[in-house]
Amino acid sequence: MSLSRTLLASIMHVNRNMGGSVINSYHLCLQIRQTHRKSIYKTEAKKIRVYAVNRYWEYLKNYDKILEKRFPAAMKVYRVFVDGVKEFMKDTKEYFRIVVILNKTNFDFSKLLRREIELYHQMPKDMRKVAPILLFSSLPFAFYILLPLVYMFPKQLLSSHFWSLQQKSEFGTLYLKKRLIHNKPVFRHLQTQLDYLKSHPLYYHWGEVLGKIGSGANPCVKEVIKCKPLFTGEPYHLLYLSRNHVVHLLKMHELHIGWFRRSRLAERAFLLKEMDKAILREGGVHNMPTEALRKCCYIRGLNPTNLSNEEMICWLTNWIELTSEVDRNSYSLLLHAPVLLSYNTPSNWVLIYPPK
Prior knowledge:
The chain has helices at 2-17, 21-61, 63-70, 72-104, 114-137, 142-152, 154-157, 165-180, 183-192, 203-214, 221-226, 243-252, 261-281, 290-299, 309-323, 331-335, 337-342, 346-352. It is built from 18 helices and no strands.
């Protein structure tokens, strides 16, 4: 302490002799030292901030991987849902583009591809099914409630856009099975009306066709086409079918049983015929890839599981041969084609009556 006082006294004495320049130099040194220390502190603080930001950014980039490691099932559902929304929005835009084209051309389907007609037929149903879920998910915190629900009930709450490949196969088979169950009631209705045709020239031929189906065989397509006049008037024209017959036809074609039943059945027949015409425009069934063949069989009521490409091509060729003979007045024949052409097909039969 005495040494510091002595040093300070000496500096003051020298400073008086030199006119105060020593004190000024001393203060300048202190300022330089403080500035240097502040510069070091700022540099170190900046390094720390940069390090923290970089670490945080790396954490954010890998956040989905962290969640996937901790919650694999939930993240899988989340990814499927997000990808499904993208696919659904893509198809929705495509659907409205098709609607605009049809409105401009007075509903001329000749310019559309088979895939576009299939989309035009399917999307309204998918939009009605998915719209409540998408609207609900936009509410605050609703997504956290929604995610477990769509995980537990994907078939009931979501469309095929949101399903995995395994779910598409599984749910598609279940939906087709529900449709095929109505084949038998439709066939019984056809049999019931046979007695009213005793005076018709095609009575015996039609009886043979129904007899083949009843005995476990499928009639050939030419035999079915020969019976076309029966479906242009009473009792098999759409206007003459009984209420119960119409209900089973609707369910067989995966249509709801609400309003305008016969009109919607006629529209279904029209779209099926337009799809078949589009297939011919695109080169025929022989030029279709396997997945397209499977989808076409599914839409028309044939279970494509375990069928070879050749079997699907043969069946679709017969189907298109039949639809080529159908006109607006005989749409009922086209609507009954799943029963007339594939009632006893093994792949359908196994689906309805699985081996024990």
